[in-house]
């Protein structure tokens, strides 16, 4: 049994605002330690449940946050930027299942530090389905026939996961008060919960089906302002929908849609707000 674990940061226990997840801020180093411990709880439980291989993908910001020297020695780690498939790099059909740890709600929704890739995105859609990072990543997993067995993060991320993926196991380590305030478990209690839920998810793996993406998906991204849409619209094959900040791209499959999304948001970040 081979497990893929994508670890983001905004949904990690006790992390409430940008000072916890921005490498230039004072809380970041503490947050890295909690993030690494949280990953270890899942890895340890996975091996205890009979997994032969656990691959962990550092999936936040520049993707070099996990303290590799503190990780479970048997885990394999994907770290660094640029990754062609970002938060799901190296995920393929050889995996029994995937788990998303430290995840958050999509942009424009209530939830701790909710967003979709960049803070300039209001909404993303695959055909008519509104998705965030979680949904896009689950679709890529589904392309390879891999089910998302567990999502861990705040309560709103758990709600989003259940709407997308029937029978998914969720581990709620903190509850949303506002977008930058939480009621959180302590890391010790969160660790107990994560181990319990990882075991539960692996035992129930046959109850979860992959989130199969549509053939030839239409990717639509709504940006916060027109300048961002203009930058994203420089990518060949894109089109700005008239009188909106929505940029659309007709993809041949979900893998192409995912990479198109990465290019579009990177371009959009070049927009000046001055």
UniProtKB/TrEMBL annotation:
<feature type="binding site">
    <location>
        <position position="8"/>
    </location>
    <ligand>
        <name>Zn(2+) 2</name>
    </ligand>
</feature>
<keyword id="KW-0378">Hydrolase</keyword>
<dbReference type="InterPro" id="IPR027476">
    <property type="entry name" value="DppA_N"/>
</dbReference>
<dbReference type="GO" id="GO:0046872">
    <property type="term" value="F:metal ion binding"/>
</dbReference>
<feature type="binding site">
    <location>
        <position position="8"/>
    </location>
    <ligand>
        <name>Zn(2+) 1</name>
    </ligand>
</feature>
<dbReference type="InterPro" id="IPR007035">
    <property type="entry name" value="Peptidase_M55"/>
</dbReference>
<dbReference type="GO" id="GO:0004177">
    <property type="term" value="F:aminopeptidase activity"/>
</dbReference>
<keyword id="KW-0031">Aminopeptidase</keyword>
<feature type="binding site">
    <location>
        <position position="10"/>
    </location>
    <ligand>
        <name>Zn(2+) 1</name>
    </ligand>
</feature>
<keyword id="KW-0862">Zinc</keyword>
<feature type="binding site">
    <location>
        <position position="104"/>
    </location>
    <ligand>
        <name>Zn(2+) 2</name>
    </ligand>
</feature>
<feature type="binding site">
    <location>
        <position position="60"/>
    </location>
    <ligand>
        <name>Zn(2+) 2</name>
    </ligand>
</feature>
<keyword id="KW-0645">Protease</keyword>
<dbReference type="InterPro" id="IPR036177">
    <property type="entry name" value="Peptidase_M55_sf"/>
</dbReference>
<dbReference type="Pfam" id="PF04951">
    <property type="entry name" value="Peptidase_M55"/>
</dbReference>
<feature type="binding site">
    <location>
        <position position="133"/>
    </location>
    <ligand>
        <name>Zn(2+) 2</name>
    </ligand>
</feature>
<protein>
    <submittedName>
        <fullName>Aminopeptidase</fullName>
    </submittedName>
</protein>
<keyword id="KW-0479">Metal-binding</keyword>
<feature type="active site" description="Nucleophile">
    <location>
        <position position="115"/>
    </location>
</feature>
């Amino acid at each position: 049994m081979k497990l893929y674990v994508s670890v983001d940061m905004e949904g990690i226990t006790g992390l409430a605002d940008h000072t916890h997840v921005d490498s230039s801020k004072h809380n970041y180093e503490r947050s890295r330690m909690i993030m690494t411990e949280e990953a270890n709880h899942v890895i340890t439980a996975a091996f205890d449940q009979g997994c032969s291989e656990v691959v962990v993908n550092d999936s936040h910001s520049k993707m070099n946050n996990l303290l590799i020297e503190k990780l479970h020695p048997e885990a394999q780690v994907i770290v660094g930027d640029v990754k062609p498939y970002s938060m799901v790099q190296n995920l393929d059909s050889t995996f029994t299942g995937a788990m998303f740890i430290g995840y958050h709600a999509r942009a424009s929704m209530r939830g701790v530090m909710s967003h979709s890739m960049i803070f300039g995105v209001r909404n993303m859609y695959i055909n008519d389905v509104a998705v965030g990072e979680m949904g896009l990543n689950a679709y890529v997993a589904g392309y390879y026939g891999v089910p998302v067995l567990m999502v861990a993060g705040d309560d709103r991320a758990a709600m989003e996961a259940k709407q997308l993926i029937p029978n998914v196991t969720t581990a709620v380590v903190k509850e949303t008060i506002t977008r930058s305030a939480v009621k959180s478990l302590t890391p010790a209690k969160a660790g107990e919960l994560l181990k319990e839920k990882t075991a539960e998810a692996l035992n129930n793996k046959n109850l979860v089906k992959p989130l199969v993406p549509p053939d030839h998906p239409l990717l639509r991204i709504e940006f916060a302002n027109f300048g961002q849409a203009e930058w994203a619209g420089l990518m060949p094959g894109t089109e700005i929908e008239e009188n909106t900040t929505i940029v659309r791209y007709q993809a041949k499959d979900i893998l192409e849609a995912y990479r198109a999304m990465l290019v579009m948001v990177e371009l959009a970040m070049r927009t000046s707000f001055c």
